[in-house]
Amino acid sequence: MRDVLRHHGSRRGTGYAAWTVVVEGTDVLLVDTGFPDDAEALVASVAAAGRSVADVVAVLVTHAHVDHVGGLAALPTHLPVLCSQGEAAHLRREFLEQVSPAAIAARLWRPRVARWAVGVLRAGGLRDVRDTRAVGVDTGERLDLPGRPVAVPTPGHTSGHVAWHFPDDGVVASGDALVTAHPTSRLTGPQLLEEMFHHDPEAAEASLAVFRSLDADRLFPGHGPPVRWPSAL
Fold first, then answer.
1. Confidence at residue 229, expressed as pLDDT on a 0 to 100 scale
2. Can you count the helices (H) and strands (E) in the chain?
3. Average pLDDT for residues 164-192, to the nearest whole number?
4. Sheet containing 218-221, strands listed edge to edge, beginning at the edge strand earlier in sequence
5. Which class is 6-228 in CATH?
6. What residue ranges do the domains of the chain occupy?
């Protein structure tokens, strides 16, 4: 029998760098892994679910930013790391789509942005997190993994961003395509990250329609606490 999906996060000065733990029998599936300095918390979250890192069978990645793949280095090297076809190349760092230092520097006069930037540095945000294990999977197909997840295209934050839908559990792990809080924002509840964080802001806006169409009643975002679904967007 599959256990409930568990959502964990670490503040470390950056707001929630969140990941999801899925337990089914003796197997564990992770969705995202937080910042590099979240590795200890990542391992502890698996232990809190009554399992060990040795029980992890795969890692699903919503997108290849450092705050979502930083914990991969703490996991066994034989584990498959799965993402969309396009995001696999991003995780191998054949290219990089992320907010530019210039964009951040132009906003450092804002206290929230300045505090966030310091937190990112402290959490290992400048480390090289490329991972050659990255394997692209087809979107729309249920995978033979705990929870039978489906990769759902939600481009915009990055071009290969996906949300991971667990239809049998009514859960969607939304990565950064839809969050519920962020240190740079005063808002709470379902929201887009501010425009500077998105590779293609118009596509990010368009991807909101995907979440409206999913059969899910719980949202596990990449930043901020989980919320019941559906929520107004």
1. 74
2. 7, 11
3. 94
4. 150-153, 162-166, 171-175, 218-221, 227-228
5. alpha beta
6. 6-228
